[in-house]
Amino acid sequence: MGAACAAVVVAVAATVVLAFSSSSRAEPTRAQYLKRVAAICRVYGPRLDRIRPPDVAEPANVIAAITAALPLIKAQERRVRALEAPASLRDRLARWFRLQDRRRSLLEKALRAAGRQDFRALSIAYVDFILAGPATARLGSAIGIPHPPC
């Protein structure tokens, strides 16, 4: 009988610990998650909006715009990725992040080309970045992510 009581006490204690541990914390709702994303976008959006879209025919302006935008884009993405997402959005968010990664990598590719003074490759990578924008924006909009600037 003593062993049975001890087993019950251990089981109850384990249940209480699991019930109140941080791992049992409820995930955010879709609305809560999107509200947090929008708050991040409100921080970075105005900063990104101040960067004038460059004329692709002027490499120096493209380089200046990418150099100014890339750190902001990376910081914004880091903060959005750090948010806990509801399970219902995770698959679509994974696709959206892949599109974001591709766009960011195109900007990085453009900067590497600029470093080599390969202005043709710079222009191509930058134009590819621009052309990849609508698909990223459509998926983000379907998820509920504000665009622009996220």
Find the structural class using helix and strand composition.
mainly alpha
Helix content: over 70%
- The amount of beta strand, in percent, is under 5%
Q: What's the overall geometry?
A: elongated
Distance linking N and C termini: 62 Å
Helix count, DSSP H or I runs of 4 or more residues: 5
Please trace the helix and strand order, writing H or E for each element.
Answer: HHHHH
Low-confidence stretches: 1-22
Mean pLDDT: 86
Biggest sheet, open or closed, and with what strands and sense? none
**DSSP strand count:** 0
Rg (CA only): 23 Å
Describe the structure.
The chain is mostly helical and 150 residues long. 76% of the residues lie in helices and 0% in strands. It has helices at 2-20, 30-49, 59-82, 90-115, 119-143. Helix 2 runs antiparallel to helix 3, helix 3 packs antiparallel against helix 4 and helix 4 (90-115) runs antiparallel to helix 5. The protein is elongated, with a radius of gyration of 23 Å.
SSE layout and pairing:
Layout (H helix, E strand, L loop, with lengths): L1 H19 L9 H20 L9 H24 L7 H26 L3 H25 L7
In short:
This protein is mainly α. Helices cover 76% and strands 0% of the residues.
